[in-house]
Amino acid sequence: MLSVLLGITDPNPALSFWVFFACIAMPAVALVYLLVVDRNTLIGATERPDDSVESGWYEKAAAGSFTDLILLLGVAATVLAFVPWDFSVDLKLVLPAMIALGFASFGIRYLVLRRKG
């Protein structure tokens, strides 16, 4: 409804409202489920999921991929600072590339940790 009131949706506000609603409904239901449902009421749910082996793999992979991104961005910034040529960098390409690199780094690290056991 906010998009209709702000004028983001010009031609057909009712259709736009229902499209926004369809896109937001499932994430909103999932958020309410996570906030409201008690884990003790679920059959077969682990009591403390943060203490699992998979959680440890996830934490190590996330920390390693963050370190990879910081290292790569630092090296790239240093190289670009001392290169005498003027590069025109399109952020519409660089930022998704960095996100993809983070996904790849995390995925590879997680798979390696899972294989090691």
Question: Describe it for me?
Answer:
With 117 residues, the protein is mainly alpha-helical. The protein has 4 helices and no strands. The longest helix has 30 residues. The radius of gyration is 22 Å and the shape is flat. The termini are far apart. The mean pLDDT is 85.
SSE inventory with pairings:
Blueprint lengths: L1 H5 L6 H24 L16 H30 L8 H26 L1
Helix pairs in contact: 3-4
Keyphrases for this structure?
117 residues; single chain; mainly alpha
What is the global morphology?
flat
Rg result:
22 Å
Low-confidence stretches: none
How many strands? Answer: 0
Please give the alpha-carbon distance between the first and last residues: 49 Å
Q: What structural class results from the helix and strand content?
A: mainly alpha
User: How many distinct helices?
Assistant: 4
**Would you tell me the overall average pLDDT?**
85
Which percent range describes the beta-strand content? under 5%
Largest sheet: none
Q: Classify the helix fraction into a percent range.
A: over 70%
Task: List the secondary-structure elements in sequence, H or E.
Answer: HHHH
Quick overview of this protein structure:
The chain is mainly α and 117 residues long. It has helices at 2-6, 13-36, 53-82, 91-116.
